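Batch manifest, entry 17 of 40.
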Amino acid sequence: MFLVIDVGNTHIVIGAYKDDELAFHWRVASDRHKTEDEYGILIKQLIENQECCSIRDIDMVVISSVVPPLTPVFEDMARQYFNAEPLVVGPGIKTGINIRLENPKEVGSDRIVNAVAAYRKYGGPVIVIDFGTATKFDVISEEGSFLGGVIAPGIGISTEALVERAAKLPRIELTRPPKVVGRNTVQSMQSGIIFGFAGQVDSIVDKIQKELGVKTRVIATGGFSRFIAGETERVDLVDEFLTLEGLKIIYEMNQKV
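Output type: structure tokens
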């Protein structure tokens, strides 16, 4: 078995692959103050809670991180708790994706991992929308080149900013309101968030496709994807574990080198 770990600014998504299948997955809070021991013990407990496997079954760890302070923490954790030299997605790692940007090194590893998985599974051209701390639209060409994308404020941070800056607005549950026109404050906020972000998605996708001159497939992923994708007209499908699958694909590609 091997672990795939996607370290994000808000959450860390962890998956365990066994016999080419995602056997288990977990989502934990991202905390820059935790040590390799704290994360190691946490992941060990998560694995040991599964009756069919143990920590001794893990022989490889693959890491994607957009939180620089946590990258060495997880590298050390892999060595200490799994006795494995981790594969960290970054410069020098084989991905099969041609990054056609002014400065390829500035692209977050999670965006590259998503591009790898989306192109392998769905072909190109394809747009990946990752609903995380930020909402990221990444564009992959028919030939498999990463062309760039769009980065917008994410649902979570936008909602938090709204609550913090408006004294009378409450914290709300992110669920679909019964109607677009809210009959109370909570419904009005839910409508603005859900339908507002859905409209943003459709508008940006339309502009990207117009700029490209072609229709593309549109894949949604990330923690908030299921809240928004169903309200859009442009998202073709939600692939919840796209990033984990991308890490698996990159691991397999680099084993053949």
